[in-house]
Amino acid sequence: MNFIIVNTVYQLFNVINMRLNNIITQNSVLILTDHTPMLHSYIPNLKSSKLFSEVKYIINLSWNKKFSLYSLEEQTDVFDHPEISLSKITGWDNIKFNRCKKLYISNLDVMVRLVSNINCDFELIRYEDGTLNYVGDIKLQDEAKNYIQKFKVIHERIREEYLYTPELIQYNSSYIYRIIPTINKNNLDYKSIFNFIFNYKAIDIPSVIFLEHNFHEDGWKNNEFEYIYITLEIAKNTPVAVKPHPRSKVSRIKLYGLSDKTIPVQWEYPFELILLNNDMKDKFLITMHSTAALSNKIIFNEDTNIILLHKGILWEHTYVFETNLENYLRDYINKYNNENIYTPLDIDEYANLLKQLIDKENFSDTNI
Length: 368
What we know:
It is a single chain. Helix content is 36%, strand content 14%. By secondary structure, it is of the alpha/beta class. It has 2 domains: 2-181, Rossmann fold; 197-363, Rossmann fold (3-Layer(aba) Sandwich). The strands form 2 sheets. Strands 3-2-1-4-5-6-7 form a 7-stranded parallel sheet. Strands 9-8-10-11-12 form a 5-stranded parallel sheet, sandwiched between helices. α11 (224-234) runs parallel beside α16 (347-361). The chain is globular and about 60 Å long.
């Protein structure tokens, strides 16, 4: 039996795609976690879809975070007794993991690393989670840190990884790469399944969408919000939506009293679902380097207008995968040869670019 751990809506979207393409079989246990609050709401429709034999839910986010506070001696004790440690995770007692033959994972968090230490014969397979898969050499990062050996065992167990564009990987790996098929927007059967599971309702899409990252809540401080603020100032007569990251717990737009300057966002879906159901060729997506902005081409093979801000983002501390990220986005642009991708070098160049694009496109409320 297959087991699949899903922490984000994007992961869930990709797992459904893999299931529809029979990469993952129906004889699978889908395990959703509390890493993304809205995941729990999809359980009833996932069960009704019968795409998976079982759908489970576990609460492990706070447990993962707690582990980082342990001493090396305490961490060693946790990994010396993986079954006992896993039993302390809410919901794990319903998993019956001894049936597992293949485990599909995306994030290499503490819980998954514990599972990799269980004395059980199963294949460990990684799957697409966006930009980090392509730029984040987690094995190299682990080797540079003072982690206990059992924390790093997972790298020896992963054999395969499923990605949309493995040719864009920016680091050396021993994985065998498999390709996740793209999705044809005209495939109504696929579309109906996605829309049912995520309970999609047609929505108006504004001309400009700023896709936020979640770095500020993960402790990586940068000046992304300056770009959001200046976007709302320059585009004050243009319909603009600021879409929070799915894992965000605080709306910075509300916090700083800017709600009246944006189109209200009530999109309880992965952004890929919005792309699947809408023509985006005349829209503008603005982001540091969000996977969602790149997905229209990667997953659906359709162009859209993108402003990538990564070159002008200022970090309080150097982003750990900054060089790989730069190279990945360069290769993405070269691969797809999309002339409608803009990469301003700083916030002044961005402001001038946005003014020019708004004047050129003549956005108005009719573009919603």
